[in-house]
Amino acid sequence: MCIRDRYGLGILSDQTSGFNRGMNGVGLGFHEHNQVNYLNPASYASLDSMTFILDAGISGQVTNFEENDVTKKTGVKKKKNANNSNFEYVVAGFRLLPHVGMSFGIIPFTNVGYNYYQSKPKDMPSDMDFDYTNTYSGDGGLHQAYIGAGWEPVKGLAVGANFSYLWGSIDRSVSNSYSNSYYKTLTRYYSMQVNSYKVDFGVQYTHQFSKKDWATVGVTFSPGHGLGASADMNIISNDTQNGVTDTTAYSIDKAYKLPTMIGAGVMWNHNNQWKVGFDYSLQKWGSLGYPSFDGTNYTLQDGIYKDRSKFNLGAQYCYGERSRAFFKRVQYRVGASYATPYFKMNGVDGPKEISVSAGFGIPIMNAYNNRSMLNISGQWVKSSAKDLIKENSFRINIGFTFNEDWFKKWKMD
After folding, report:
1. What confidence tens digit (pLDDT) does each residue in 99-118 have?
2. CA distances from 21 to 40, 53, 294, 310, 312 (A)
């Protein structure tokens, strides 16, 4: 039912892990030694040399959809709730060589999933003595499997890259049906299949201002390129009077592309207790064409996509991550973000997104393990645009960071 699913590649994933989500996605300047931060591959250079890190996460979501009555006479607001859950990601990281870290995993890129309908408005002319229904449905998404490395050639400066395989399919349909058999039933089926790649580069530089204060600046860059995927559309016309069905096929070769993506962020660290970060990212969708059907031709149309900006602010507090006291090792996180849409509908900007989050990093402490972490966070997301469906979502994110001393050398007395 989400209006954002119907356009482009679907809803863009945050692509964050458990510790990032508690801070609402901040991470371009974070170089954690005990977490896999794939938002910036340069951060892999800081991974602890003694451990192997495995991180996996799931999420559950409740969404409330709201729209004003289409008659605009009663002022009634239509509401509907939807629930879903997902296995989000699984990633791993470890120190490969001195000053070189490595990571690999599977993460989501986009998601599509909706099914809703629109019926004839109550205020249509009375001489139209039939009903009609438009039904919209969509399913699928794109997934990303990556492998990456980060290297610190000189103290304080790290560089890195992720190389990804991008795959998936997206299927959408729009069906028009009428109660009067004089009118034909029309269904348009849209489909795409992606098998391509994605490359992300990252740089981080850390400067220490005092014994207890230092800051890291991070920059990422992902070049845009064609996905090699065609946009296919089949129109099926069903004449109920004569029992005749016609199919017309359209296709646009190499219709889909990834935009150039740029990000920059900074993280301030005070005594390894306070960590505050701010990120800005830009996705250059505006220069890309969008497959559109005008009733006669199926072509790439300009002006549908638009550049997308996102701002993230987040913070984490931990009294002492190496303390033996449980509550002193708990990590407290908060964050907020604002994102602009990456598409337009009928010349009007799509929904903008505002979200806030809070969470905890709960240490796992026993005789065998004192490095692993359970990351739990809650996130509220509001997506809205003028005269469109408004969405309010509440998500629960749960991630487990398995951190073991795989590479520690034991000594015998």
Report:
1. 999 999 999 999 888 887 77
2. 15, 18, 41, 15, 11
